[in-house]
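User: Structure please.
Assistant: Input sequence and predicted structure:
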Amino acid sequence: MALPMEFLKRSIKAILIVPVLILFSWSGQLKAQDNSPVDFEADSVTVNQQDDTMTATGNVTIIQNDETLRADEVIYNPSSETARAIGNVVITTLDGVTHYADEMTLDENFTHAIARPLLTKLSDGTRFSADSGEYTQNKRTVFDRSIFSPCKCNYDEGESPIWDLRASRSIHDVESRTISHQNVTMRIFGLPVFYLPILAHPDQTVQRQSGFLAPDIAYSNDRGMTVTAPYYHVLSPTSDVELQPTNFQFRGQGLKTIYRQRWDSSELDTTIYTANLETFKKRRELVAATDTRFSTVLEDGWKMQMRLFRTSQDTFLRRYRYEAEQRLDSYVQAEKISDDRYYLVKASDTQGLRETDTPDKEPVILPYIYYEKISDGPYANQTIRQELSALQLDNDEGHDMVRWTGLLGTRYQHKANGHILTATGDLLGSYHDIQSNNSGNGDLNELGQAQVIVTGEWQYPVGVTYGDEKKASAILSPKVKLTAIEGSDRTAHIPNRDAADFRLDEANMFLANRFQGRDFILPGSHLAAGLSGVTEHPLFGDVSGFIGLSYRTTGTSPTSITSDSREAYSDYVTSLAVYTPFSLTLSWSGRADRKTLELNESRANAIYSAAGTSLELSHTQIAKSYFVNGIEDREEATINFTQSLGGGLSVTAEQVWNLSDGQSKKDQSILSLGWAGGFQDCVGLSLEYKRDPYADRDIKKVSEVQLHLSFKYLGSISK
């Protein structure tokens, strides 16, 4: 009976291995220096009795320390303690690096090799090719007359990388995880673009390494040519610092310093801005700013957060495009969240940067203390809520204020036959100590107040089916809530700090105190009713909607509220959202006058997203807020469009129109073309046009074009 050919082949290999192992054992080469075993396999083995050389041919495989050598032929010379691999030589290392050569000479332990020529592929696809090279296991690889490129292209089909580095010598140091090049020329699409005598950068395993980053170059009509030459330095495995010195052609010099530190349970990020600049005062000034953030987790679940954000000059950060904020908030807070309790202690200060902001209108909160506990009551479906808070507010538009509040409340819910009944009762007490700073004599006004807040709510969700064969379903949920607030009206005597911008919408229509906070609480009663619904339609998709109305049964509105909101009936509050199966989402919410149905507020959105295309259209109309000192009417429209063009290319456009006062004025505009990773995942490119209409003193309306070009491993260049 004939044996299968594959069985005979394996048997021959096993037989041939025997003299090889005997020879290696006699030569002391069966074990490496670290006593790790060597696995060997070949189709045939011959031994030259004259010089004791051994020749293995045909699918030669040698494995040691999880690294593998493959070749067509291997000749081992025990006298020189070297092996010569010939034909289709491949070494695969444990870290995913692969070396290819036509011929390679190795030492006795296969840890050092000289190849001619040498091709090396790193684990992320980065490629080295060289006329010759030298490989040392787990240490470094040297490439002579090398070509380096991280671009992913089909070399086997003759495709060339978008860019590469050509050097007289390149060294990949595995221990320091660094790649360095000598006498290096960068080529883009085969054309040389620059030469450097030496260039070093991290390899694919490194996220952080000290060194100079690619410069940023920009131009604007206000600042002139701007050049930033950043330097990044790793201080330790958990800390680093980045220096960004900048020269503004027309406006002086600046330095941005970024320091980062990490601990097991803490984080510190500090940014310091220092500069000698020409400001809106038309003279050179030494200006500075800092943004420092710190957070840590303390014992017993406490988390502490701190931020110090201040600048010595109002327009400095915005004019030089460091930061865009118009209000800088600094604070220190500690909070703790448990299963049934919440603790918060906070102190804060705000620096306003607008021309109308003055220090005497910037409040300092020192401190704000808040405690809340929610626990089960003595009855089923009952919860008990306890709340305590204390606030000291200084320099608040001519007032210093101390406020103490306490609340004890209960909530009970009952469900029967689909009906949901909910009742709440709250006892709220507060004490205000208000001192006026404008009168000169420090007038003191002490106010105490107590309110009883009682609510009753009914809700009845009902499921229905409709349409052909009853394939469509919906849930309709009518809801009615009555709220009664008993107590004294102190709104005319207490500075309104935490209810400064109120609008009636679906979110707060059913709240007991729609103004939130503890400064603005109106005695009286009101009834709110609404109908919400959601449906799953086989054709139109998911649809949800709401309509509601509120009626003030008792009480009056204070004079600080706009006249159109002093009526007993509220506006109609409505919303509608349609999630179609065609990648299109439509939504609208707003308020309509009860008598004329004229819109007092409207927010409309249409979003389409599919197959690399994203288009969003929005329109917002905001009527003057309920408070007399609120913002003015505002109407604007926005279009935002993003299209993926394939191969990493994408285009984005955004335009905002200011439609207030019956006008149509272009507001912010953005148009950008991005090339993320390039066609070969080694180049990043973006071209952006931006128009910013904001102006404040020496901050001018800006229209600028920015080109940003980045290369994998080599940082970025922007202009």
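Confidence is low (pLDDT under 50) at residues 1-33.
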